[in-house]
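This section describes the prediction task in plain terms. A model, or a person checking by hand, is given the sequence of a single protein chain and must write out its three-dimensional structure as a string of tokens. No templates, partner chains or ligands are provided. The sample shown here is typical of the held-out split.
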Amino acid sequence: MTCYVYFVHVQDTTLTFSMDWVLLGFAVVTPMSISIGLAFKRRENALRNIALFRSCAFQVFLAHASWDWGNVCDSGRLKATDKQGYDWQDHADQCLAELIGMADELCSFLTLPSFSRARHRVTPWGRQEASRTVEVAYRLWDSLLTVRMSKLSYMTEKLKQ
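The expected answer:
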């Protein structure tokens, strides 16, 4: 609307009107300011969630790598290999590999291209692109939640024994 009024006034100099520039400033600047603020808030929230995931993954690894319940009962891990022949260093390495794999798959999942735009609903090419992206997203999410979390849960059960 601002451009329209400007160009009409430039082309037709017989128009005489007064424009309240403060109102125009609020009409243009306020939506841009809110949009930028919301984008930064989304970014800060995403960074906070990434930091939370990182700290939780680190604590899970520390639990699997260093917890020793030898003082509580006789079956604690006092050595790298315990009485039943379980290798705890290999256990910690497997846990680290699972956590790194989870972070890698989560990164791949979060950086997938968008598949919810109008072109993905309207055009045949867009529908194909969206279906491929959704298929990859489901495979990554399934691997992340079902496979890797199940392995980590099983490793926790080993740790508790």
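For orientation: The helical segments are 2-11, 21-66, 88-110, 119-122, 124-160.
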